[in-house]
Amino acid sequence: MSRLVVISNRIPKDDAPAGGLVFALDELLSKRGGIWIGADDPSDSRKDGLKQIGAGAYDRFVFQLSHAEHEKYYHGYANSALWPTFHSRRDLMRHRADWFAVYYDVNSRVASLIANMLKPDDIVWIHDYHFLPLASKLREWKVTNQIGFFLHIPFPSRTDINALPEHTMLPDWLAAFDLVGLQTQRDVAACREYLRQTGEVELLISGGRVQRQHRTFAINSFPIGVDADAIAKAAGTAHADVAERVKTAGPLILGVDRLDYSKGLIQRVEGFGRYLDFYNSEGLRPTYLQIAPVSRGDVTAYQDIRQQLDEIAGSVNGSHADLDWTPIRYVRRNVSRDVISGLYRHADICLVTPLADGMNLVAKEFIAAQAPEDPGVLILSQFAGAAEQMEDALPVNPFDTDSIAAAIAKAISMPIDERKERYLSQSRSVFSEDIAWWGRTYLDRLASMAVA
Ligand code: GDG
Question: Lower CB count within 10 Å: N or C terminus of the chain?
């Protein structure tokens, strides 16, 4: 088997922060082996070369950036320009030419480091929006290896992407990969439509292939999965302890998200508030437990969302709390994976209401953790990539806070037979299209491009 070389910005270190991509790739590489290259914590000065930080089931290397580079490449271009644009938030997009210059320079430098260490039959798999130009830079180094790309976030609409001054380079960047993997069919359609509009490509009918000048590459969807068996096992083990710690006077409603404006947290709290105001006819005392570890805390838009969430959660609690009942418990600390699995099992309802989301692993983890004989109910935004596969979740429009309130009321009173039926249908895809399936399917398709 060829050696797999994975590149992503984030790489697990001892204090690995929460994040969907890291968990997904760690699970895959632990089983298959290979090399993972990512960014080190920034330091005072930039250092050249790759540094090995771990060996074991797979080897880990980091490239090193100065604080100034990290600020412009990561907080700047990646997370203040690309992330909002790709999540339909042009209003939050900030653009600076020097951010892009450093982003591009980091990609050039990482390409030179990788080009130097590649063996001829290595397979390269690049992840996410931090490295859009990386394959085009590797091709400049005459790298002819198979290079795949997977975008974990949504592919933006034509209108949104046109707001990025550098989008004119995107067709070249994409065409340097052999396979562009996206989360959903909706993303594939958006990507093809964008390329069609540029007029410089021929969209071939078979297999999602695209011809651009002398290169043929493919654009396909590969909905990312979770390690469902491991989550089910952890949930079974952790459940009793967690239930003991999280005592509630009524149903437990759970949310688990990085503190990010794309996750719809403000509308979710408002929706819960509306449920308490207008839909709670039986006078129940539900607890809504929101786990929301802080993420990208140095970016202004993230500081704003944190402040807004503090205010709205405080306001809902202020209106409804009693001496012996706090409706919203809001935990900003990172909670261990085992405890999260136990919480999924213990919860009656999971609220997954992003305004835009590539996939959303929480939706799948929640289903994986349920007890089949008494499953909880998943309330799922129509804008999460997961909604394409999980048709039997309770759907909501996350911008419509009444639809969230009504879905909570419906979930709380849902008869056991309906809960089981919905669970059964969702668990089929969560267990069969798991993380191993995702990695296998992607890499098989990438290999097939070599002989196409
Ligand atoms: C990106 C895309 C796509 C959350 N809080 C804690 C914690 N988590 C874990 C969850 C889940 C992960 O973080 C979040 O995954 P998501 O998929 O919901 O979201 P992103 O981080 O935005 O991930 C996303 C994903 O990549 C994969 O392709 O689905 O659309 O945006 O696993 O359980 N884990 C722990 N403590 C926490 O406090 N241990």
Answer: N
Q: Could you identify the atom of ligand 1 that is nearest to the CA of residue 384?
A: 30
Clarify whether 304 is annotated catalytic. Answer: no
* Structural tokens at position 379: 């309330």
Per-residue model confidence (pLDDT) at position 259? 93
Looking at the structure, do residues 402 and 440 belong to the same domain, yes or no? no
What's the CA gap between 262 and 87, in Å, rounded? 7
- Identify whether residues 218 and 300 lie together within a single domain: no
Q: Which of 107, 95, 97 is nearest to 176 (CA)?
A: 107
Residues 245-289: tens digit of each pLDDT: 999 999 999 999 999 999 999 999 999 999 999 999 889 999 999
User: Relative to the CA of 23, which ligand 1 atom is closest?
Assistant: 32
- Angstrom distance (rounded) from CA 235 to CA 232: 5
Ligand 1 mean position, distance from CA 362 (Å): 6
Mean pLDDT (whole number) for 301-309: 91
pLDDT tens-digit series, residues 129-186: 999 999 999 999 999 999 999 999 999 999 999 999 999 999 999 999 999 999 999 9
> Any idea what the Cα angle at residue 362 is, between residues 432 and 131, rounded to 5°?
90
- C-alpha 226: how far from its chain's center? 11
Same domain, yes or no: 115 and 192: yes
Is residue 254 within 8 Å of residue 286, measured between CB atoms? no
Residues 213, 272 share a domain: no
Residue 450: name the closest of 81, 129, 173, 148 by CA: 148
How far apart are the C-alpha atoms of 257 and 260, rounded to whole Å? 8
Quote the ligand 1 centre to 17 CA distance (angstroms).
10
Domain that holds residue 250: 228-431
Query: Are 126 and 118 in contact, with CB atoms under 8 Å apart?
Result: no
Taking only the tens place, the pLDDT of each residue in 308-356 is 999 999 999 999 999 999 999 999 998 999 999 999 999 999 999 999 9
Number of domains in the chain: 2
What's the CATH code of the domain at 75? 3.40.50.2000
Give the Cβ contact number of residue 437 at 10 Å.
17
